[in-house]
Amino acid sequence: MNSTSAPNAQPTHDATAFFSSDAAWFDAHLDLAYLAELGRDLTRPIGVGGSHCATLPDLAEAPVECCLATIFCEPGLDDPSQPWGYRDSDDRVAARRAAVRQLDRYLALEACGAIEVLRWREDLDTPGSGRMRIAILVEGADGIDGGEDLAWWFDRGVRVLGLAWARGTRAAGGNAAPRGLSGEGRDLVAAADALGVLHDASHLADAAFADLLARSDRRVIASHSNARWLMGSGENQRHLTRDQVAEIARREGAVGLNLYGRFLAEDRSATLEDCLRHVEAIAEIAGRERVGLGSDLDGGFGTAELPEGLRHPAQFPALDHGLAARGWSHEERRGFRCGNWFRVLRESLPPRPPHR
What we know:
Blueprint: E1 25-30, H1 32-37, H2 56-59, E2 64-71, E3 74-75, E4 85-86, H3 92-111, E5 115-117, E6 132-139, H4 150-155, E7 158-162, E8 172-174, E9 177-181, H5 183-195, E10 198-200, H6 206-215, E11 220-221, H7 242-250, E12 255-257, H8 272-286, E13 291-293, H9 317-325, H10 330-348
Parallel strand pairs: 1-2, 2-6, 3-4, 5-6, 6-7, 7-10, 10-11, 12-13
Antiparallel strand pairs: 8-9
Helix pairs in contact: 8-9
């Protein structure tokens, strides 16, 4: 269906006061703390032409002014003593330690004035200060010690939860470990709903995705996922099915375009046209107001694996120009750039309690 016939279609909330200009971007998936753990100085630019491209100054070239910034810790490392890794899902102490280190990265960046952490709906009512504004997304729940522990993370700023990464977690099956939710996963879903934490379905195995929908009636997003039916055999659970896209739209969520080349095209280098093809495929089902960017820049890959002409945030406007050439209106393109994710965040963040 097109944008005018999308389920639950509604106008984009006015984000004029929040973003510095009409050209601003909202990126729904950036592994910034993980990159810092790898040794990346997030405050120093890399520039166009580098092997990587995700730092705060480089993102400002787009300009990306808001993002979902992840806590991503990697299981199964050959050397699980690395500060971003842990042995496996049973290694609760190391998983939590790694996740807390990344949370502390964001809080330290906030304390020194490099970023602002968005915690409450009212935080979206203030004009930008020139700093990147983030909502914290946990990607893989092994660092959270069950449903009761989620409140500790919420109090420190976590507002989005993806229960699994590719290899799965104690809570849920991932796209490379197909199974449903565990009892701990079901408890986490209930705790997230009670707190007002948004669900991210990217990386969930199909069985876990179905279990999430059965356990919760809340909004669901896919922060960085593409159209499964455009990818070869259509069997890779890393990508979304048509039915999953339709359900995300029905629940008033959104889907973020992942720029990793192998998730856009198979057996060849990805192009801008591949990106636009995935955006329009998602929008045909969900509506143009339910799709945005979830780049995953430097998320385990370098700029050589990005589409030609989209290998630095400064080149993001090529997506906007491509959508314009395909007939997207100014307002629809502004929605893709920033307005659609802004609306989801505004409708998802809890209101500030009186005592905060």
